[in-house]
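Margin note: ligand = 4'-phosphopantetheine.
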Amino acid sequence: MAVAVYPGSFDPVTLGHMDIIERTAHMMDHVIIGVLQNNSKTPLFSVEERVNMLKSVTSHLKNVEVQAFGGLLVDFVHQNHADVIVRGLRAITDFEYELQLAQTNRVIAPDVDTIFLTTNLRYSYLSSSIVKEIAGYDGDISEFLHPAVAEQVRNKLKEKAAANQV
Ligand code: PNS
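Resulting structure:
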């Protein structure tokens, strides 16, 4: 059985991530989405919120599960008896960081390989940060996110704005 881990911050999950998840689910027997919890960046959503959003938008994919993880990615891969890490490559600008990540992971865990999927051209410009920036200026984010996720982003930004006014 081929098991893949698709790791990331997913703050929030975008349609670009969804494209990679759906294609991986098609190729692999089982996919575990690993949501990083101890991210050095301050996330907009808590890890529980990110996990729940991912669970809701992948509920139609029967061979996909979602888990939070902390610590080293390769430890999470080993704990889940997975075979490979999957990452999406959007553009050449992703390449240097992704190569560093994949090579470091392979040095610390030689049995773990990383495979890359090139992002659908439609989403090659897309990132969670860009979406948050657009939403922060009240722009339309419906092209980039699942409707339920877009609603949560708008609500979260409203909550934050209200908290800042107190
Ligand atoms: O979506 P992101 O934020 O680019 O994902 C980055 C992620 C989660 C894959 C990376 O930060 C990660 O694997 N973090 C866990 C700690 C670790 O194992 N670091 C890699 C050693 S090089």
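The first helix runs from residue 15 to 27.
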